[in-house]
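Reply to dn_fold:

You asked what the input looked like. This is it:
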Amino acid sequence: MNKNFITLAAVALTAGLHAQTTLDVDASKSLAKIQPTMYGIFFEDINMAADGGLYAEMIKNRSFEFADPLMGWKQPKSDRHNFNTESGIATTIKDKDRKANANYLHAIVKKEGGYELINEGFRGMGIVKDAKYNLSLAIAHAEGIKKITFEFIDKSGKVLGQTSVTPDAKDWKNYTAQLTATATEAKANLRLTFTGVGTIDMDMISLFPQETWKGRKNGLRKDLVQLLYDLKPGFLRFPGGCIVEGRTLAQRYQWKKTVGPVDQRELLINRWNEEFAHRLTPDYFQTFGLGFFEYFQVSEDIGAEPLPILSCGMACQFNTGELVPLDELEPYVQDALDLIEFANGSTQTAWGKVRADMGHPEPFNLKMIGVGNEQWGPDYIARYKIFEKAIKAKYPKMIIVSGSGPFPDGDYFAYGHDELKKLNAEIVDEHYYKPPQWFRENATRYDKYDRKGPKIFAGEYAAQSVAIASPDNKNNWECAYSEAAFMTGLERNAEVVHLTSYAPLLAHEEGWQWTPDLIWFNNLTSFGSANYYVQKLFANNKGTDLVSVKLAGKDVTGQGNLFASAVKDAKKKTLIVKLVNSDSKPQTVKLNVKGAKLASSATVTVLTSANNADENSFAEPTKISPKTQNTSVKGKPELTLAPRSVNVFEVPLQ
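and this is what came back:
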């Protein structure tokens, strides 16, 4: 960061060099409570966010269930379509007695040392020198095969770590081993070679780093969960997003297929695999190793309220729009009721026992559930009514989140809001993907919303630097500070706005379909975008009570390209003022605080960058990141705000 910008953002205790603006802050009265859920996170399995991302499995197509059962697997010394090869061949066999994980690999080894299998991982495998990796697999019917050797290799075939397994049983048996990487490599593969000549069956060939989040075996990627934890989110919405709906009803997300033993979870094609012609990803599937139990568990880990979203019997209306007839909706409604039992039921209930058997006998204390993702029109309202009646009849305290469609305005939006208001809906989910300027111009969006109407969940939003779904969208600085300007309006309307979340959350450097995204990762590293740091600043400084901040008696909503909101934190006993300067020139702001006595020292945290097009990157992951400094406070605090900057002023109250 340019040091001049840090200087410009410092609290000045002398007269400013620029035209001065005085903001009146009244800390004597709480205007509204800031909900603990004010700032949260939205997870969807897009951009390889789950398999190949948060879920730390390194083997692609570990159980041979993809549409092409050998996708991700190579036989470089063989031709899988020629069964007369000299070295050997592998094919897949379907076990008709298995409902899930029906396929397994059958290998014929004809020449010792001449046949090998290689798994390519998710755009390669990221391994770190001296780190340990846990291997597991199931083996049966090993005839003549005395040993399987597993090796990390780089693109030249150099071995970067090795282990082996010795089959010793005729029937299916699970085996484990461990590899230690001898070098750091982002694009490693796993090679299997065989000692002996004969046949062997293998399934669930799995590889995880030993170091995962909380050290859980076969768990989540530590660096990615840490980035989520650092946001201090009030909630975690999962599992999406449009994958909830599916392109067809058969391809919808069904939570019951994502719990229980991992090897018994039914794989599903990811609905984003061929959604965008500019980013076709035919190898994108959901193994559901990251399933509903794991979502609840990670919510608990990071201190976030779980917010599951379920299908309401409508496939994505941008695709087939397939509908379940109303008189056939009962199984979908029962799924919602059973999910609540899974999350909250005692171990004596059917689904509470499933949760307990998975290692969590205590309830997850689910308080909210979403019906549908971003459906619209009369068909949605009719189905919402049925869900609402059934859920409230059995769980009257459960808060139900409804939706107003995919757009922030227009006929679909107006109809949905009007109908949901008539139904006394508790929380309505709104989505907006718009240009940066829209976010600055709509900081007043909720100023005139009915305080007695439904509360609002800003469930998906992100400034689009080019256009919605454009592959050229960037996580640039203009998008980030424009979102911050909008967020001052969300915070100022905390009486109405109870939940907010940026979307999408995660994106693989090579496996993405949609931009922009909050967090970027590759096989070795990850970083937060400028937008991430905006979210972190607001979420880490949300406070407990909204207080008034005015400019000439009016809310600060863009006058002179200045935006502001103010809160008190009753727990920390501090006053926090958030200030966004979207102007290309610095501004000096004096805070005239009434109703509270300020301590003599404060902190100022500044997020800024020189150019609108600036971004964080793998090469410069913290190019745009917050800088905090202490300052003394005498009289009325005076701040000089850098051009295009987000600023958080926090002062203890005496």
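Residues 41-55+216-253+272-330+368-540 form a domain with the TIM Barrel fold (CATH 3.20.20.80).
Hope that clears it up.
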